[in-house]
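Sequence only, no structure available. Ideas?
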Amino acid sequence: MFHKILGWFSNDLAIDLGTANTLVFAKGKGIVCNEPSVVAIQKDKVIAVGKEAQKMLGRTPANIIAMRPLKEGVIADFDKTGELLKYFIRKVHNRKSFISPRIAIGVPSGITQVEQRAVKDAAQASGAREIYLIEEPMAAALGVGLPIGEPSGNMIVDIGGGTTDVAVISLHGVVYSKAVRMGGDKMDEDIVNHIKSKERILIGDRTAELIKREIGSAYKVDDENRSMNIKGRDLVSGIPKTITIYEDEIRDAISETITVILNAIKVALENTPPELASDIVDRGIVLAGGGALVRGLDSLIRNETALPVIVAEEPLLAVVNGVGQVLDDLDILKRVSI
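Reply:
I predicted one. Tokens follow.
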């Protein structure tokens, strides 16, 4: 009875707990929160979360630490993830702490039992009543509108900040999945290392992400070699300096990570049952997640696999929209949750 009463007050939530960003979908309202998965701590006390904390990344005095509690799609710091979830739940419910929602959370497909437990415990600590975990590729497939309930093969590639999930889905189930602990963050790291070794300039993660978004590419789509001016610290003189970098060199810098993602797709295709493989020839591969926005990635995959490649309409929202969709249908929620 008590749970029933709680249910009347609750506002069910779908959460895409990402390495880079956390998105929250409230039942009946749509996406209500989209903020960086960053927490700022001072003397073991959380002083900022989300956008406020992100502004502090790389800019804090010694007594304040700004950090991401999730690494490679999984919880690296349990307590801080709990704080992160608590903040988002309270923010969505306008700080009403008595609310105890049912929560569905998108998690990477390669998640271990221990990691699943950590996500559930963090969600419970933040006041959730019931917790469902849904594999991100399944959620992304739902979010982009693939007919996952049909007896036909659908291939989805979800490239997040910390992980890339490749999955073949049929009849509400994952027939084959391959997850690599690499994604947008690794590309940022590649850019930082490249500029450090080639230009002898040190830049921060935020600058690297900006470079990736502005001039990053996986494949030469046209003859234009885009450029941008960036500021960093000269490693030789120690003085801040501005330099110009070009698309070609950034493409080389991230090529190793792109190759790992490409190989994961090829392995998934090799392991797909023949009947479902023939469906993928007709329907193609759907790209979701922030990494799907890297210029030319769809062209590169198309060239390497000779299959149609479609970038989802709103790749960044695919997982949270998918998790949000199943909140309305408890039957499907129970079928697709881990």
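Residues 1-10 have pLDDT under 50 and may be disordered.
Hope that gets you unstuck.
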